[in-house]
Design goal:
The complex is a heterodimer of chains A (about 325) and B (about 200). With about 325 residues, chain A is an alpha/beta fold. Chain A contains twelve helices and ten strands. In chain A, about 40% of the residues lie in helices and about 15% in strands. In chain A, the strands form three sheets. A six-stranded parallel β-sheet of chain A has the order 4-1-7-8-9-10, sandwiched between helices. A two-stranded parallel sheet of chain A has the order 2-3. The two termini of chain A are about 15 Å apart. Chain B has one domain: Rossmann fold. In chain B, strand 1, helix 2 and strand 2 form a beta-alpha-beta unit. Classes of the chains: A alpha/beta (about 325), B alpha/beta (about 200).
């Protein structure tokens, strides 16, 4: 059994958003393994979140929804495992926020996982990450349609959410990948009569498109709650800030994966996890995968990830 | 780093006590570390900067980190391993002295094995041809060799001496992989294996 934790904007449909990694003959070979991915608590794609109906008021929770943490999300998913009768999994993995959930799962439930693969992630959210998340949240709460979170049944704060997503996308790419994808290319239909509102450069057009599409499937309040949960994440919280002590409870093998050009989760954050594990003589391996994709590499660097994950899993015997 | 040399793992193993902790730098495919775990019950971590080696080591179930040794071992604590091993890799390091100093800092003891560039055949060939020699074990051209710091056994002894690193044991191997002693060993040895202490 392979348990995959999805990232901020992901969902349970792992064979879609990670179709290059999960499927027959893929790194997580569905001919060999059962692969399970569960919608995270606080989300808007099937689990309970701020857009869900509060049974007490018969209305959406909106801001009455409690602030959840990465740990709460893990606990909720463990309830699903219990319900399904899954005592332990062979592998837990995930990228970005999914990597945080993976680490938390390994620390909170050490006997329920044998191999842990945190990808493009961190054991504690950096000031830089919190800063980007905060700008995204500000965009949402300053959208007049946000209305202190009470927009259900009315026009949602799509402009704010779309800006938040645009900021996100910038942090998921790299200077190189943007230069390659867009360069200074301008749109053919650019209109200089219209000042500022219409997209001029291809990169603007891309961000606007991605931002707009995101509002069709994502709830703004969920964005606030989950991005805050990410900000609050510090795996060492319960061990007085001592990450080594926090991870010393783990019994699993670890493979930590970092991608070159991921400036949102720089190498030192992966090494912090690796160092804490090696100091307690855990079985930990560390791989640096060449990439120019930036943080998005965890969705795109199929070949590099596949090789290393398959090798790691072969060693699990 | 030098594929053709099958470094003498037996010598290194003989230096290492059962059940100790080992950091294997430049571990390649992990075969040395794997046999140390199997035969001597050590606990260990491998380090290599090449993806292929790291993947191959993981396939053996080893704990292995993809790090660049030229950046030092700053994340490793003082005396945190019983042994730090560097076999057939020193000659490919850019900052040789840093690596050796880091080894005796992190390890209670350090083990270094390297090809002896002072072997008489190499010396003679260089003298006669006036060109950098190529051999089975050093098959590269001077301009593309990964072995950028070629040294002799004597060179290495001087390096240790100048940096107050104690040589506890030294074993020399001839072309057949046999341990040799007596006269002119530094001319006859193709490889030297040293047990060091900082």
């Amino acid at each position: 059994m392979v348990l995959v934790f999805h990232a901020l904007s992901g969902d349970a449909k792992v064979a879609e958003w990670w179709g290059n990694m999960v499927g027959p003959g893929k790194a997580f070979d569905t001919n060999k393994y059962f692969v399970l991915c569960i919608n995270t608590l606080g989300g808007c794609q099937g689990s309970t979140g701020p857009s869900s109906i509060n049974p007490k008021t018969k209305k959406p929770y909106a801001l009455d929804f409690p602030q959840i943490t990465i740990k709460d999300m893990v606990n909720a998913q463990v309830k699903v495992l219990d319900e399904l009768g899954i005592d332990s999994v062979l592998v837990a993995t995930g990228g970005s926020m999914g990597g945080m959930l993976t680490l938390q799962f390994a620390v909170s439930y050490p006997s329920r996982v044998r191999n842990v693969i945190p990808i493009a992630t961190s054991a504690r959210t950096s000031a830089q990450n919190i800063a980007f998340n905060e700008v995204g949240r500000r965009a949402i709460i300053h959208d007049p349609n946000w209305n202190k979170g009470n927009y259900y049944g009315k026009t949602p704060p799509n402009d704010g959410l779309s800006i938040a997503r645009m900021i996100g996308h910038i942090t998921y790419l790299s200077d190189k990948s943007m230069a390659k994808k867009f360069g200074r290319k301008e749109r053919e239909d650019r209109n200089f009569e219209v000042k500022f509102t219409g997209p001029q450069f291809e990169v603007e057009s891309y961000l606007q498109y991605k931002g707009g599409r995101f509002t069709e499937r994502f709830d703004a309040n969920t964005y606030l709650y989950i991005s805050k949960a990410i900000d609050l994440f510090d795996l060492s919280d319960e061990s007085g800030g001592d990450l080594t002590r926090a991870l010393s409870k783990c019994k699993s093998r670890f493979l930590v994966i970092y991608f070159k050009s991921d400036w949102l989760f720089p190498e030192y954050q992966s090494l912090e996890i690796v160092d804490a594990l090696k100091d307690s003589f855990a079985n930990v391996s560390y791989r640096v995968i060449d990439s120019t994709y930036g943080h998005d590499a965890f969705l795109l660097e199929t070949e590099g990830m596949t090789k290393t994950i398959v090798s790691f899993l072969e060693g699990a015997k | 780093m030098i594929e053709n040399i099958k470094p003498d793992h037996e010598i290194i193993k003989s230096f290492i006590k059962d059940g100790s902790t080992v950091l294997d730098l430049g571990c390649g495919d992990g075969s040395l570390l794997h046999s140390l775990i199997e035969e001597k019950g050590v606990r260990g971590i491998g380090v290599d900067m090449h993806a292929e080696g790291v993947d191959e080591s993981m396939r053996k179930g080893l704990s292995v980190l993809q790090l660049d040794l030229n950046k030092g071992l700053s994340s490793f604590k003082d005396k945190s391993f019983d042994y730090v091993v560097l076999n057939m890799t020193l000659q490919a390091m850019y900052d040789t002295l840093l690596v050796v100093k880091e080894m005796v800092r992190v390890g209670k003891k350090a083990i270094v094995g390297f090809p002896n560039f002072g072997h008489w055949k190499l010396t003679v060939r260089m003298l006669l041809s006036q060109r950098m020699p190529k051999t089975k074990t050093l098959p590269y051209e001077w301009y593309n060799t990964p072995n950028i710091r070629l040294m002799t056994i004597k060179d290495f002894r001087v390096l240790c001496d100048e940096n107050n690193i104690k040589i506890l044991k030294q074993v020399y191997l001839d072309e057949g992989g046999k341990s040799i002693s007596g006269k002119l060993t530094s001319l006859r040895a193709i490889e030297g294996v040293f047990l060091l202490q900082g």
